[in-house]
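Can't paste images in this forum, so I'm doing it all in text. The chain is below; anyone willing to post the predicted structure tokens underneath?
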Amino acid sequence: MEQGFHFIRPLWLLLLPLGPLLLWWWQRRNDPLQRWKGMIAPHLLAHLVVGDSEHWRARPIHLVCAVIVIGSIACAGPTWELESPPFAEDRAPMMVAMDLSPAMNAIDVSPTRLERAKQKVRDLMSLRVGGRTGLIVYTNTAHMVLPPTDDAALMEMFLSALSTDLLPGKGQNAAAALALADRLLDAESDPGTIVFFTSGFDDAQIPAFVAHHQRSRQQVLMLAVGTTKGGPLRTASGAMQTGQDGAPIEAKLDDQALQRLASQAHIPLTSITAGNADMQWVQREALHHLQIMNDKSSVHWKEYGYFLCYPLVLLGVFWFRRGWVVRWVLVLGFVGVGAMPSTASAADWQVAGWFFTPDQQGRWYYEHRDFEQAAQHFQNPYWKGLALYQHGRWEDAQKIFETLPGADAKLMSGNSYAHQFEYEEAKDAYNEALRMRHPFPEAEANLQLMTILIKQRADVPPEKQDEDTRPDQIKQDKEGKQGKDTSTVQGQRLMPLPADVWMRNLSVSPADFLRTKFSIESGQPAAASSNGGAPP
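Text version of the structure:
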């Protein structure tokens, strides 16, 4: 869609000639030469007319004509930029496909290509507050790390664990990542966007991308990570890779292959930048694609005619000069003020309540990450539960989600249970969500995680009591309970973990968890962990 300069309501421009015509008519009507030329000879008329005809000064008619001209342009709606609909970012799902081939360890961009790409994903998550974003990694095989989610903390935890040694194989099978991302986005109600972060491309994958462009409702964006000049290649542990001659191995950006892909499959291609312009471009493309695919008539252009109100207000100031006052304007102003309903005055000065519903106010607080205020304002139970969940009040959120119907509510109920380490209840909630909706990738992934956590909890042997956890004393209530119950007073109690690190309280790191998961999915033995130990 062309985004050049145009008018949203061009019919208002029909009023534009009215200003010059009105000025011409007024000047002709008030010109004494025109009134007397039929009665006095023209060679005498010029000498009989007196007055300062050569000195021009502004008159009310000039302001009226200027208001008509500027007002008609403002009402016509000049624009040149698309406007995103309210909360559209919440409905534009996205999958990030991250290349984990060894070439992503090159240091032609600081600190490495992979670390720069991970930082870009963090920037993208900060732009998509409330938007659902998933993560896929690939080499010769593709694997889901995280289904579409709006939990930035969960994305950060797994994103930080990514390294090029997580996948045992080598290669750049982008077609496998494309098929997996397409399947995950097909489960979403709205069309989405697949964003690739890569430093190269295999030409054998181009036909799959061409076929995807012809049949799929999901769009693909390609971001090149690296430079054509290239840079030294490092291992996943950070050591410099050298060839047989001892010279550092250089890795260059395969821009020619990426250009061929972009040309043949009609995929937008750009390079990552030092600033945030690249991620803003990705977000704009995602919202634009959502608008076009859902309803072409729903595309809205940003209104710039409002800026013309400033010169109109400035012109209005001159109406209050002596002899220029239009008294009916004052009358209408007083009538308008008197017609305001008396209920508009609030004793607590909560002006936002005059114009916005409690849910709209809660949505504003939610988008600005003030979840406590959002929970207080929301009347919609589902959104109230989401605000409580984001605020870390998982027990309160779980009580709300349990009363709500639908697969999404069951998913959030399971997430609330999981945050409270109640894995069995979380597993039951995820199973209920899958019975209501299938496929449901996010519920499937969380169910798989709960199964692993339950197994790990069962395999952990009971801890022996040491001097710090040994009871100081054991008291028996012989009178009330007849010595049947005992209460233990601990010398030192374990403090609960903060809300944002609940998944870190595992016997396995996120990197080892992903390594084991990928190895099982690939049907290969688990690779050694980055710290030299074997995964559980």
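Residues 441-459 form the longest helix (19 residues). DSSP finds 21 helices and 14 strands in the chain.
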